[in-house]
Design brief:
binds manganese (II) ion, globular, Purple Acid Phosphatase, chain A, domain 2, about 240 residues, about 35% helix
Length: about 240
Amino acid sequence: MSAHTLFISDLHLDADRPQATAAFIDFLVNEAIHAERLYILGDLFEAWLGDDDDAPLAAVVAQALNALSQHGTAIYFLRGNRDFLLGTDYARRCGMRLLPDPSVITLYGSPTLLAHGDLLCSDDIAYQQFRQQVRTPEWQSAFLAQSLAERAAFAARARAASHAHQQGIDETITDVTADTVNQWFARFGIQRIIHGHTHRPAIHVPAADPGTWQRIVLGDWYRKGSVLRIASDGETSLRSLPFA
Ligand SMILES: [Mn+2]
């Protein structure tokens, strides 16, 4: 098997959906073990209350990721809008390194921008304002000072509000903004962007000149998984992973 790197995002792991957790652990044991690197581009968890959360799911996932890292696959994690509070303590337990959002990496010679994807949805002003608020150190320390039960109640309310917000606005608002994507290509000097968040898996290339740039969108893990594989020779495949 040639050297390759894997990308996943938007697993939204939750105690209520054990099939997704089982599929993820199966993926780590049977597939990611053969990869040089695994990038998790956010929303690994449906919600993250803080690294002090003692729920069994967090422990199971940390153990499985740590085993993979011990075996020799380098693991990188970029926070999503659901698990933006995942911190260095939990990352250490998983044996993974945290990356800022966005990050530019060199992938087999090609500069590649990695992002969760929510920053690209810049037409959604209400969401971007919420995002800015919850990313301040003041908001985060006040949040983390609450009890786990209070934090869980807040997370449930935020999910309900987000769901209602998305039902109430046009589909194009919750997708990426084309102008912002174009600005990022120019600003970061890259030809490839990989992100998740929108749950609209696709490999986008410009119709007029397919060789100039690529924007790869990872899918979610609700009914099946979604895995991007890029090999050292550039071969790229985005496939879905059926649940057992
Ligand atoms: Mn997301």
